[in-house]
């Protein structure tokens, strides 16, 4: 039995929001990770972010500024954040780990936050609705070696 187009709640011809939004005005979710074992993660959203102009360093600086100026992030200010990595792409499969994506440590999912003249975010395949983790690399390495969660 065929369902008429008027009764479908989706349209195969309609593009995904991650593809339809211009790279100069995307929405990103930044996942600030304070503690891996205790799963202390707090998100914030950047709207109208320009992926063609901003580098990984720019995003890192903007994220740190948000943490330092927003009262809700006061408990997250005592961590020395030094790494950003893509957690998931829009409409993609998510990792089973609720804190961090253990995969893609050796490819373009890890964003260079040190070079102000580095690659633009669009060159990392960051697109609309991408989730990016911000964390301390040393803490991540320790947790990855022994991914034991605590309460």
What does it look like?
With 151 residues, the chain is α+β, with helices and mostly antiparallel strands. The chain is 18% helix and 22% strand. The chain has a single domain, classed as Ubiquitin-like (UB roll) (Roll). The chain has helices at residues 17-20, 56-69, 137-145, and strands at 26-35, 40-49, 83-88, 110-111, 131-135. Strands 2-1-5-3-4 form a 5-stranded mixed sheet.
Give me the secondary-structure topology.
Elements: H1 17-20, E1 26-35, E2 40-49, H2 56-69, E3 83-88, E4 110-111, E5 131-135, H3 137-145
Parallel strand pairs: 1-5
Antiparallel strand pairs: 1-2, 3-4, 3-5
Offer a quick outline of the entry.
The protein is of the alpha+beta class and about 150 residues long. Helix content is about 20%, strand content about 20%. The mean pLDDT is about 85.
What key attributes describe this structure?
single chain; 151 residues; alpha+beta; Ubiquitin-like (UB roll); five-stranded mixed beta sheet; 18% helix; globular
Biggest pleated-sheet summary:
5 strands, mixed
Strand content: 15-25%
| Order of helical and strand elements | HEEHEEEH
Radius of gyration: 17 Å
CATH class categorisation: Alpha Beta
Distance between the termini: 52 Å
What's the total number of strands? 5
Provide a count of the helices.
Answer: 3
Helix and strand composition category: alpha+beta
Instruction: Report helical residue fraction.
Output: 10-25%
Number of domains: 1
Overall shape: it is globular
Low-confidence stretches: none
């Amino acid at each position: 039995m065929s369902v008429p187009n008027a009764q479908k709640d989706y349209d195969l011809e309609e593009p995904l929001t991650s593809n339809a939004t211009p790279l100069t005005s995307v929405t990103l979710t930044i996942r600030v990770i304070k503690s891996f074992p205790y799963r202390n993660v707090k998100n914030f959203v950047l709207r109208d972010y320009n992926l063609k102009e901003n580098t990984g360093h720019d995003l890192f600086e903007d994220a740190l500024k948000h943490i330092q100026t927003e009262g809700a992030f006061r408990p997250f200010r005592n961590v020395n954040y030094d790494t950003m990595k893509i957690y998931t792409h829009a409409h993609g499969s998510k990792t089973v780990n609720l804190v961090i994506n253990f995969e893609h440590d050796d490819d373009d999912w890890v964003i260079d936050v040190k070079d102000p003249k580095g690659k633009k975010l669009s060159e990392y395949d960051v697109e609309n609705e991408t989730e990016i983790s911000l964390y301390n690399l040393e803490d991540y390495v320790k947790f990855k070696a022994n991914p034991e969660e605590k309460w």
